[in-house]
C-alpha cells in the first residue's frame, strides 16, 4: 500500500535526531531546503511522516506541520484500509457462521446413518423392504441363515421378488445347507431360479442381512434381548461396504442351489459333515452345533451319531480326534 510514494509498512521511526530537528524547526519557524538538508536522514524522516512540508508559496522552504494533521495524512489511508479489512473479515466470519446449522445438521444425519434407522417389528420391516425393493435399480442380495424359511414368509416375498426380477434386478441369496431339506424353500427357490434368481448354500453363515444396490442394508436387531423380528436400516457406506465384501467372499465358496431335487441335500453332504466334525473337534455342544448349522437339535444329534459311526468313534471326543487326524477338519 502506497501513499504519496511511501509504503505504509516502511514509514520511518521518529528517532532522537528527527525529534531534535523537529523541535529546532518549530523554534525557527522554517527550514531552508538545500543539498545538505535533502540528504539528512532526519529531514527525510520528517518529510515521510508529514511533520515537514514545503511552504505553499515557497517550495524551497520547509515548514512544520501539526502532528495531528501529519498523522491523518500519513496514517489515515492505512487506518481506512485496516477498517475495511476488518469489515470484510467480520462479514466473512458471519457468512461462515451461517453455515453452522447446515454443518451440524449434516453431522446429525451422518450419525443417524451410522447408527441406523430402527424398525421395531415385522410389519414395519416388511413395509420398508417393499419400499426399498421398489427403489432398487441394479441388485439385491441376502444372507438367510437357519434352515428352511417359513412358508408364510416365502409366500409374502415371492411376488415382490418376481417383480424385481422382471425389472432386470440381479437377485442372489445365500442359505445354509440345512435349507435344502425344506420342501417349501425348495419350491420357492425353484420358482425364483426359473425367473433368473441365483441361490447358493454354505454350511455356516453369519446373521441375516439384506442389501439393496450395495447402498442400503437391513440387519436384525439382537441387542437387549431382541427376538430379531425388528431390523435396523443402515446406509453408512463403510458398514454397507463391509457387508458387501463379506457376502462376496461367502458367495464365492458356496454351493449352487436350484431348488427341488432328491439329491439336493446329498450334494452338500460332505461339506456339511466336514463342518460338523470341525465343530466336534472344537468341543462345541450339541445345542451350539445345531444353531451354527441351522438345524434342529434332534437332526443335529442324528448327524453327529451318523458321523461318529462312519469314523468308528465311540465318543464325541474320540470322533473329534479321528476327524482331525483324517483331515476332515482342515480348511478346504
Automatic annotation (TrEMBL):
<dbReference type="GO" id="GO:0006355">
    <property type="term" value="P:regulation of DNA-templated transcription"/>
</dbReference>
<dbReference type="InterPro" id="IPR016032">
    <property type="entry name" value="Sig_transdc_resp-reg_C-effctor"/>
</dbReference>
<dbReference type="InterPro" id="IPR051797">
    <property type="entry name" value="TrmB-like"/>
</dbReference>
<dbReference type="GO" id="GO:0003677">
    <property type="term" value="F:DNA binding"/>
</dbReference>
<dbReference type="InterPro" id="IPR000792">
    <property type="entry name" value="Tscrpt_reg_LuxR_C"/>
</dbReference>
<dbReference type="InterPro" id="IPR036388">
    <property type="entry name" value="WH-like_DNA-bd_sf"/>
</dbReference>
<feature type="domain" description="HTH luxR-type">
    <location>
        <begin position="274"/>
        <end position="323"/>
    </location>
</feature>
<protein>
    <recommendedName>
        <fullName>HTH luxR-type domain-containing protein</fullName>
    </recommendedName>
</protein>
